[in-house]
Structure to design on (340 residues):
């Protein structure tokens, strides 16, 4: 499996730490007093380094402050070293105003990726905005598992006896994957990048999300089969070697939603204590899996037992669960009962 870009993963890990340990201490919006305090500081010292330090005093992490400074200065997010060599550079009034406006947005829980319009997932640079969730580092665990399965099935396919010129059989040997609820296309694109021989489908009910997926696919020169729809509805003639999904799994009324006000609720919330979409996908998927193929989910921190039970009740076999970066059960999958 190709190595992921470590710097991207480091950035996402820092962002994850901030999301877990810091955002709960911030109010959902900036008070008038806090807003006035930010305005008061404007003009006191407008060097790049001083403004970054000052924004950290107001609650940003240094990484966040650096990302917002690069945006205000019109520089690429990859140029963080430039900040250290130009820390005495003075901002223009326009640049300073842009910087503090973005600081306020971040302190109001707007995801950093929505502000910079950039994110990094599995080593891939992605455009991310309000049309889809910002992909989390924990979801890379799902991609790791999916690639292991694809590599395993590829070996089985390669070792299967076929006639050299039998084009029908050759087509059947191409592995076929689908990402349900693709959002920005992060999972589908990571799979296509690292398993280019596979046919990768990306399905989402939101046309806005699919526009974002297509933008990212074109920017990365990766070809996906993009389709609008509700999970696997309308895909009756398709069988897959692997089905993956990071569906909505937060229960309505969950207190964590207070800090996710800027992200699309349709990609976050699911009825039946967050299990409705997982159950719907598991029920549909069983008739869309090739012999021995897998269905993999990302799910909530306390849902692994219920996901396993759902898969068991539907007849899936070899059901397994894997932890996320914090050691919390995060991904569960099962294999098609048809092992012929």
């Amino acid at each position: 499996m190709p190595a992921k870009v470590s710097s991207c993963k480091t950035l996402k890990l820092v962002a994850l730490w901030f999301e877990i340990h810091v955002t709960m201490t911030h109010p959902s919006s900036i008070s008038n007093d806090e807003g006035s305090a930010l305005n008061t500081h404007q003009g006191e010292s407008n060097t790049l380094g001083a403004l970054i330090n000052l924004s950290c005093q107001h609650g940003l992490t240094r990484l966040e402050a650096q990302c917002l400074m690069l945006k205000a200065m019109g520089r690429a997010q990859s140029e963080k070293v430039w900040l250290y060599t130009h820390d005495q550079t003075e901002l223009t009034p326009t640049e300073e105003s842009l910087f503090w406006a973005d600081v306020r947005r971040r302190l109001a829980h707007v995801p950093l990726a929505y502000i910079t319009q950039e994110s990094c997932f599995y080593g891939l640079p992605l455009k991310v905005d309000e049309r889809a969730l910002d992909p989390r580092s924990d979801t890379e665990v799902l991609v790791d598992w999916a690639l292991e399965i694809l590599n395993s099935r590829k070996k089985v396919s390669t070792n299967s006896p076929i006639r050299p010129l039998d084009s029908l059989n050759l087509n059947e040997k191409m592995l076929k994957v689908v990402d349900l609820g693709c959002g920005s296309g992060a999972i589908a694109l990571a799979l296509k990048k690292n398993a280019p021989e596979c046919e990768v489908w990306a399905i989402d009910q939101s046309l806005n999300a699919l526009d974002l997926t297509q933008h990212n696919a074109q920017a990365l020169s990766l070809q996906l089969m993009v389709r609008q729809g509700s999970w696997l509805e309308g895909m009756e003639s398709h069988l897959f070697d692997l089905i993956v999904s990071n569906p909505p799994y937060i229960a309505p009324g969950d207190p964590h939603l207070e800090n996710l006000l800027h992200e699309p609720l349709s990609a976050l919330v699911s009825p039946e204590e967050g299990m409705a979409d997982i159950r719907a996908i598991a029920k549909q998927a069983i008739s869309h899996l090739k012999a021995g193929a897998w269905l993999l989910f990302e799910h909530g921190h306390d849902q692994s037992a219920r996901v396993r039970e759902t898969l068991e009740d539907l007849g899936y076999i070899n059901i397994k669960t894997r932890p996320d970066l914090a050691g919390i059960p995060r991904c569960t999958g099962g294999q098609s009962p048809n092992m012929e």
Q: What stands out?
A: Residues 153 and 159 are 10 Å apart (CA to CA). The mean pLDDT is 86.
